[in-house]
TrEMBL record:
GO terms for molecular function: flavin adenine dinucleotide binding; squalene monooxygenase activity. It comes from the Eukaryota. One of its GO terms (biological process) is sterol biosynthetic process. Pathway: Terpene metabolism; lanosterol biosynthesis; lanosterol from farnesyl diphosphate: step 2/3. It is found in: Membrane. The chain crosses the membrane at residues 279-298. This is Squalene monooxygenase. Residues 33-302 form the Squalene epoxidase domain.
């Protein structure tokens, strides 16, 4: 185990041979290995040669730690459907609650000149549960405000001999559903199972060909969680459009029905049901449930029009995300040749 800051990958004839890194003392050193796993996070400066990074920043999180307050439902995470976008609250200790306020777009109110404090007090605080209000105002007054861009990036790798991308350096989704670690740990299990039968990693070209199957085998879990995160964020954002409002309310009420209507989406969220088709079925079940509520007991032309726009809006949310993930890899992975790659001969 060596600790240092990696400054670059060492490449030779298109193959990654290792890394150049800087120690705490400032010494520049090189380390060589037959396989380099690159997992340097969302701000990765090493991924550019290993994938096509199309990073989108739909919003930012403004984070606060609320002290000595009780959540409406103890020991549970809370998603508050606020205007303009959701607020997350969840306990991080017996006395502390982390609050993440989603602010759409990339431009945040300034913390330095007090704009942020004013925005949080006037726009956000009135929408919080009363139990959290005083602790929220107190946290703002203490100035403990942290910000973080929320990034989204589909996995689009360049299979490179000698190297493999993992984690947020490789694939990101909106953190609303907290799916990042689930995807990363699932990817580790897939990679472990692929490497297990190998006793020698030194044939970089054969290994790279074999590890192409990693990108297909990871898809069921990764694409389900990625698509759900992107779709839920868009559904949960406030909108002046009546059809989007109906979709948001239908989603909440569908989950409130209990039984398969809540267990199904929760199994998808947690990675316990890595079936993209189940996700599409539940997503459109929400849309149809929303249309049904509009049309019963007495349909009108206006309600039918809103219902048609609700279905159209649901399609325009989910299909672009599925397209970015890759329809074939998501729904028909067994038709991808890399799915059947055998380990290289010893």
């Amino acid at each position: 185990m060596e600790q240092g800051t990696v400054t670059s990958l060492l490449e030779e004839n298109g193959t990654i041979k290792g890394v150049q890194y800087k120690t705490k003392a400032g010494q520049e050193l090189k380390a060589y290995a037959p396989l380099t796993i690159v997992c340097d996070g969302c701000f990765s400066n090493l991924r550019r040669s290993l994938c096509n990074p199309k990073v989108d920043v739909p919003s930012c999180f403004v984070g606060l730690v609320l002290e000595n307050c009780q959540l409406p439902f103890a020991n549970h995470g809370h998603v508050i459907l606020a205007d303009p976008s959701p607020i997350l609250c969840y306990p991080i200790s017996s006395t502390e609650v982390r609050c993440l306020v989603d602010v759409p777009g990339q431009k945040l109110p300034s913390i330095a000149n007090g704009e942020m404090a004013n925005y949080l007090k006037t726009r956000v605080a009135p929408q919080l549960p009363p139990q959290l209000y005083d602790a929220f105002i107190s946290a703002i007054d203490q100035g403990k405000i942290r910000t973080m861009p929320n990034r989204s990036m589909p996995a689009d790798p360049y299979p490179t001999p000698g190297a493999l991308l993992m984690g947020d350096a490789f694939n990101m989704r909106h953190p609303l559903t907290g799916g990042g670690m689930t995807v990363a740990l699932s990817d580790i299990v897939v990679l472990r199972d692929l490497l297990k039968p190998l006793s020698n990693l030194n044939d970089a070209v054969s290994l790279s060909k074999y590890l192409e199957s990693f990108y297909t085998l990871r898809k069921p879990v990764a694409s389900t969680i990625n698509t759900l995160a992107g779709a839920l964020y868009k559904v949960f954002c406030a909108s002046p459009d009546q059809a989007r409002k109906e979709m948001r309310e239908a989603c909440f009420d569908y989950l409130s029905l209990g039984g398969v209507c809540s267990a199904g989406p929760v199994a998808l969220l947690s990675g316990l049901n890595p079936r993209p088709l189940s996700l599409v079925v539940h997503f459109f079940a929400v849309a149809i449930y929303g249309v049904g509520r509009l049309l019963l007991p007495f349909p009108s032309l206006k309600r039918m029009w809103i219902g048609a726009r609700l279905i159209s809006g649901a399609s325009s949310i989910i299909f672009p995300i599925i397209k970015a993930e890759g329809v074939r890899q998501m729904f028909f992975p067994v038709t991808v040749p890399a799915y059947y790659r055998a380990p290289p001969a010893k």
